[in-house]
Amino acid sequence: MYFRSALIALVLSLFSAPAIGLPSHPPDEHPPVQDATEARSPEDGHAALADGLHDQHEYSPDQVDTDQHAHDEPAPCGDDEHHAAASPAATSSGHTHWGEDGASTPFERAMARLGSLHSVAVHLPIALFAAAALAQLLVLAGRFDGGGATVRFLVWTGALGGLAAGLLGWAHSGPMAASESGVMLIHRIMGTGLALGLFVVAGVMEWHDRVRTSLSSAIFNLCLFGGAAALMFNGFLGGSLAHGGLRHLLGLG
Q1: In this structure, is residue 58 part of a structural domain?
Q2: Which of these, 78, 104, 223, 244, is most buried using a 10 Å CB contact count?
C-alpha cells in the first residue's frame, strides 16, 4: 500500500514538473504583439483601398464612353490571310471557282455542282491512255499479238473520257480569274489542250493503221506516249491543287 502511494506520487510529480531541457523565458523577454485590428480599423482599410483604386483609374466622361465602346466592339483582325481564306472566292487549293466572286447565278451554281464530278472523271483518260501505252509497248516488243485492236479501243475511249473531264474541269473552275495562280493556269491550259489533243492522237492512230509505214509508226508512238505522260503530269498538277498547292504537296512550304 505504501509502495502504491509512493508510485502515484512520483507520477504526479513528473507530469506537474516543467519539461527537462526546454528553457523557460521570462515574460518580459517577449515583445508585445500588436493587434492588427487596433493598428487599422476596417473603415480605414476600405477607405485606403478606395483611394488607391481611384488614383489608378481616374476617368473623364469621354474616356468612360470610349472604353465602353472599346469593350463592345471586337478588335480588328490584322491577318489578311484569314480574310482571304474566309472569302468565298478563295480556296485552300490555290485557285478560285467561277471568277473572282464565286458562283452567284443559278446557272453558275448548277455548273459548279456539275463540275464537282471532274475529280472523278479525270481518272478515266489517265488510266486508259496509260494502259494503251503499256499495250503498245508489248506490241512493239512482240509480246502482244493482235494487240493493235486493244490499243485502238483504249485510245478512243480515253479521248472521249478526256473530253468529258475537260468540260467538267471548266464547269468546276469557271471563267479564268485575273488572280489565278500559276499552277492552276498551267493545269487549265494543259487540260484544255489534252481534251482536244487526245483526238489528234486517235486520228494519227487511224492514219498509221492505214499506211503502216515506219514514219507513221514513229509519229503514232510519239503521240501516244507523249499524250500518256502529259495526262499523268496534268493529273499531278490537279492533285496538287486539291491538296493545298504544289509547294505543299512537295513539302516545300
Answers
A1: no
A2: 223
Backbone angles phi, psi at 87, to 5 degrees: -65, 140
d(CA 208, CA 199): 14
**Which contacts qualify for 144-152: CB closer than 8 Å, 24 or more apart?**
148/209, 151/205, 151/224, 152/205, 152/209
DSSP state of 67: H
Q: For the segment 221-236, what is each residue's pLDDT rounded down to a tens digit? A: 999 999 999 999 999 9
- What is the rounded distance in angstroms from the CA atom of residue 93 to the CA atom of residue 245? 5
Q: Grid coordinates in use for 105?
A: 447565278
The number of domains in the chain is 1
The alpha-helical segments, DSSP class H, found in 87-213 are: 106-115, 118-121, 123-140, 148-173, 182-211
Is 87 within a domain? no
State the chain's maximal CA–CA distance in angstroms.
145
In terms of residue numbers, what domain contains 174?
A: 118-249
How does pLDDT run across 101-137, given as a tens digit for each residue?
Answer: 677 788 888 888 898 899 899 999 999 999 999 999 9
DSSP letter for each residue of 185-199: HHHHHHHHHHHHHHH
Residue 241 in contact with residue 93, Cβ under 8 Å?
yes
> What does the radius of gyration of the chain's CA atoms come to, in whole angstroms?
44
How far apart are the C-alpha atoms of 73 and 65, rounded to whole Å?
12
Give the closest residue to 241 by CA, choosing from 189, 182, 196: 182
Question: Per 3-state DSSP, what percentage of the chain is helix, strand, and coil (rounded to 5)?
Answer: 70, 0, 30
